[in-house]
Design a protein that fits this description.
Blueprint (H helix, E strand, L loop, with lengths): L1 E5 L8 E7 L2 E7 L12 H4 L1 H5 L9 E3 L5 E3 L2 H19 L4 E5 L7 H13 L4 E3 L6 H11 L4 E2 L6 E5 L3 H4 L1 H12 L3 E5 L5 H4 L3 E3 L6 H14 L5 H7 E2 L1 H8 L4 H8 L3 H13 L3 E5 L9 H14 L9 E2 L27 H4 L13 H6 L8 E5 L3 H4 L3 H10 L2 E6 L11 E4 L8 E2 L1 H5 L2 E2 L1 E2 L12 H11 L11 H8 L7 H6 L4 E2 L8 H4 L8 E2 L3 H5 L29 E4 L15 H5 L5 E4 L1 H6 L7 E6 L2 E9 L7 E4 L32 E2 L2 E3 L1
Parallel strand pairs: 6-7, 6-15, 9-10, 9-13, 10-11, 12-22, 15-16, 16-17, 23-27, 24-26
Antiparallel strand pairs: 1-2, 2-3, 4-5, 4-17, 8-14, 18-20, 19-21, 23-28, 24-27, 25-26, 25-29
Helix pairs in contact: 4-20, 5-14, 9-12, 9-13, 9-14
Bound molecules: ligand MGD (2 copies), iron/sulfur cluster (SF4) and molybdenum atom.
The site of one ligand MGD has 34 residues, from helix 17 and strand 16.
Length: 683
């Protein structure tokens, strides 16, 4: 039997066809939208049966004994224990001392809204997402600039810029659209410090110095304004603050910036010309810009570049979404209502979206260890593996040891679960129904349908949340007996039901794509225009026009002040198509398909340090060390090394977040600098 659904083994959320035999998942294939020359096969989907039926999955809830071992328990005992601990924390320290951390796996849609609802009913504002290092920082600052997060319309574009984004490994659907546009003659610019396979396909590849993207965007705008190539009509009628920008970019001539970004001036200008001569053009930005302490101002600069170039919300440009109307399940109407969240020092980021909740993961370790602004005493972690994925892991470990109570909800035993008092086995993708955020932020609604029964005694995330809520007495807030009932309720404003979605595997689009919506509606900002000068940033005392020369916006990589002792720049590395962050290294077929735990080091740096291919080398920063094999390669420039990402779950010695730092944070989004830091070799 073949069933169409959405895969959620990673955040790309691809439409797939699943083959089921005797109730077992046999194979998963991405739905074909293009001919073979463009269609992408996903190795993770090919390994889906191995992933789902892995003997390493958690079978039953487990509780830690006094001796420190793990003991199987029933779900009844598990729910009793969790609810008892939650109430104990509330009585002793206040409800806000309980935090709930979610990672990328529990999606940004249904289950996350249920968690916020439960936490708010309980009295805690601290339902915390990991978006400060993922895309939420960019989403927030784009929202302050033009009311939403835009998405690049690769398919219809004449010029695509992939800026710190590597769709070839991370988003097959977008990559297919990019290849299609290329087949129709679209130009491609890649801005990446690493010579990725995508960079080798570009018309122009700008090998930027990591973390200097804001300077490059300003230099591009300097050239565009100087050569009078901006969209006069759009700037005049739909933006505010252009004159301030014009003045600010004067200090960023391509000639001056060339040294900062380490890109030759003529190459930089060639790239801007490609962007301005081939319209519509779009900028796909990515996680290469997150995980830096200056993500907020960099995002602002890129957003403004899109706007003044006249590409916003045009076919083939950068589209403003048309989200489906759904109920907001958060119960807090105001961020300022007591108790305030632990992210109080980042007020703009904490309240930028009604639906998103708090994404200031950067402050969680401080709240536990330093008790700032107040202590977090108990934590529930769902679909995240922070012992591998949060910055400065040694400090995170110390924090988790200090907690009075830690619960982990995950299909797998993880390094994070090793710290837990109780572990709840969650169902995986394909085993639970949910409405995904991908569907909700676009206007094509699709259901991620359950196509097989949950593994052993595992339960779907929604059911775990509903049962905790109901046991705590929140039946009024959680009246639903099934997830279908809950989804029907949440989708009510859209007029669509689960029944209809079940009948439409290709999804339901509620309206046609509309371009230039601002002509009728304006932008969703206080002035209804693109805020080149941001009224919100100004109100909260941040620079209202992006600027990078002063230390507010441009902090070098972590440990910058120690650069004399740590002469190399370390870069958190490739997101391989075979894996998702810390996941799937236990799957042999995926491990064998390539991409090993290595550090890419330039021949010149290797020679200076007497390092040969495959040598096991130690990399250290002031925060920790890892041991990893050397891969001599000129995909990086001398002075930069790139360390394979996500191998920390497979073996602790490869955990690159032992090296990263969490002391410097983006002043608006609390983003830590997981991406770039300064390591050195020790003998
Ligand atoms: N296979 C797979 N797919 C995934 C994931 C996964 O783990 N595995 N994770 C998912 C998630 S949660 C996310 S957030 C997305 C992210 O997906 P993308 O947005 O594509 O991000 P990355 O692949 O991390 O990085 C993109 C590129 O940025 C470059 N880069 C690094 N530092 C800088 C810099 O300072 N400036 C510039 N301009 N570029 C830089 C890197 O070399 C890399 O090639 O992928 C999603 N898709
Ligand atoms: N140095 C450095 N740090 C980084 C990054 C980097 O590139 N470099 N990337 C950052 C980014 S963009 C992100 S998004 C984060 C990712 O951080 P995490 O979200 O911690 O990433 P994962 O390792 O994918 O962990 C997801 C966990 O969810 C579990 N899981 C899978 N499916 C389900 C499910 O359906 N339900 C439940 N309950 N659990 C499930 C998996 O078994 C896994 O243990 O890491 C960030 N940290
Ligand atoms: S890219 Fe991600 S969502 Fe798409 S099929 Fe592969 S694992 Fe599934
Ligand atoms: Mo992410």
């Amino acid at each position: 039997m073949k069933i169409n659904t959405i895969c959620r083994l990673c955040s790309a959320c691809c439409p797939v066809e699943v083959s089921i035999e005797n109730g077992r998942l046999v194979s998963v294939q991405r739905v074909k939208r293009y001919p073979d020359s463009i269609h992408q096969v996903c190795p993770k989907a090919q390994a889906a049966a191995e992933i789902i039926y892995s003997s390493k999955r958690l079978n039953k809830p487990k509780m830690r004994t006094k001796e420190g071992t793990l003991q199987d328990i029933s779900w009844e005992t598990a729910f009793d224990f969790i609810c008892f601990k939650m109430k104990e924390i509330k009585e002793n320290y206040g409800a806000e001392a309980l935090g709930w951390l979610r990672g990328q796996a529990s999606d940004w849609g249904g289950p996350w809204q249920y968690v916020m609802r439960l936490m708010h009913a309980f009295g805690s504002p601290n339902a915390i997402g990991n978006g400060s290092v993922c895309h939420a920082g960019r989403e927030a600052l784009q929202t302050f600039t033009y009311g939403d997060m835009s998405s690049p319309d690769y398919k219809n574009s004449k010029c695509i810029i992939c800026w710190g984004r590597n769709d070839q490994d991370t988003n097959p659907t977008a990559y297919e659209d990019l290849l299609y546009a290329r087949s129709k003659g679209a130009k491609l610019v890649v801005i990446d410090p690493v010579k990725t396979p995508l960079a080798t396909k570009a018309d122009i590849w700008l090998q930027i110095k990591p973390g200097t993207d804001g300077f490059l965007a300003m230099a591009m705008m300097n050239w565009i304004i100087k050569n009078d190539l901006f969209d006069h009509e759009f700037v005049k009628n739909y933006t505010v603050g252009f004159n301030f920008l014009k003045k600010e970019v004067e200090d960023y001539s391509p000639e001056k910036i060339s040294k900062v970004v380490q890109i030759p001036t003529d190459k930089m200008i060639k790239a801007v010309k490609l962007y301005t001569n081939n319209r519509p053009a779009c900028i796909g930005e990515g996680n290469g810009l997150d995980m830096h302490c200056q993500v907020s101002q960099v995002t602002r600069a890129l957003a403004i570049l899109r706007a003044i170039s006249g590409n916003l919300d045009r076919r083939g440009g950068d589209l403003i979404p048309q989200p489906v109307k759904i109920k907001n399940y958060q119960l807090r109407t105001s961020f300022w209502k007591e108790p305030t969240p632990i992210s109080i020092e980042y007020p703009l980021f904490s309240q930028y979206s009604e639906k998103r909740g708090i994404h200031a993961m950067g402050v969680l370790t401080d709240a536990i260890l330093e008790e700032k602004p107040y202590p977090i005493k108990g934590l529930i972690i769902q679909g995240a593996n922070p012992i591998v994925t949060m910055a400065n892991v040694n400090r995170v470990k110390k924090a988790f040891r200090k907690l009075n109570f830690l619960a982990v909800i995950d299909p797998m035993m993880t390094q994070t679960a090793e710290f837990a008092d109780i572990i709840l086995p969650a169902s995986f993708s394909f085993e639970q129904t949910m409405i995904s955020n991908n569907a909700l932020s676009g206007n094509n609604l699709r259901l991620q349908k359950k196509v097989i029964e949950p593994w052993e005694k595992s339960l779907p995330d929604w059911e775990i949340i509903f049962r905790i809520a109901q046991r705590l007495g929140f039946e009024k807030e959680f009246p639903w007996k099934s997830v279908e009932e809950a989804i029907d309720d949440q989708l009510q404003p859209s007029g669509i039901t689960v029944k209809e979605l079940n009948k439409s595997p290709e999804g339901i689009s509620l309206e046609k794509v509309r371009y230039q919506k601002y002509l009728q509606e304006g932008f969703k900002t206080p002035s209804k225009k693109v805020e080149i000068e941001s009224s919100l940033l100004k109100k909260y005392g941040y620079p209202a026009i992006p600027e990078f020369w002063d230390s507010f916006s441009y902090q070098g990589p972590s440990f910058y002040e120690k650069r004399d002792h740590y002469p190399l720049i370390g870069l958190s590395g490739r997101r391989s198509n075979n894996f998702v962050h810390s996941q799937f290294r236990h799957i042999k077929s995926l491990r064998e398909k390539g991409s090993n735990p290595i550090v890419d080091i330039h021949p010149q740096d290797a020679k200076e340090r007497n390092i040969n291919q495959d040598d096991s080398i130690i990399i250290s920063t002031p925060n920790g060390s890892i041991k990893i094999r050397a891969g001599i390669s000129s995909i990086v420039v001398p002075g930069t090394v790139r360390i394979a990402w996500g191998w920390g779950e497979y073996s602790e010695k490869y955990n690159l977040n032992l090296l990263t730092d969490d002391s410097l944070k983006d002043p608006i989004t609390s983003t830590t600098s997981n991406r770039v830091f300064m390591p050195d070799k020790k003998d």
